Amino acid sequence: MPSEASVATYHRVAELERAGVSRHAAFDQVAEREGLTRGAVSQRYYVTKPKVTGLPAPGRPKPSSKASRNGDGADLGTLIETAALMVLEAARHVAELEADAARWREVAAILDR
């Protein structure tokens, strides 16, 4: 379990965030109040948060076993990220095609007059 000082720092930042202060500004305010660097406050916050909230730490979870890797050793998380990026790119391409089709329909309507 994190130290009492780290838990207190986490709660101070979280309290400022609930009051509408950005996390960056909250780090600065807490650092000034506690005589720490912004980096130290940030480190305390991010190390303590998963332990206090029970939520996973930021970042991609690490594979728990070899079963979570495909045959060539690529991490499933990386494969999923790649697939998601490909889907987003395809969606952008579809939107461009739809815009082109709308322009061609306008041209066709003008030519039909």
Mean pLDDT value? 84
In terms of quaternary structure, the protein is single chain
Helix content: 55-70%
Number of strands: 0
Radius of gyration, rounded? 24 Å
Query: Major β-sheet, in short?
Result: none
Explained architecture:
With 113 residues, the chain is an all-alpha fold. It is 70% helix and 0% strand. The chain is built from four helices and no strands. The termini are far apart.
Secondary structure elements and pairings:
Blueprint: H1 4-18, H2 23-34, H3 38-53, H4 76-111
Supply database-style keywords.
113 residues, 4 helices, 0% strand, elongated, mainly alpha
How would you briefly describe this protein structure?
By secondary structure, the chain is mostly helical. It is built from four helices and no strands.
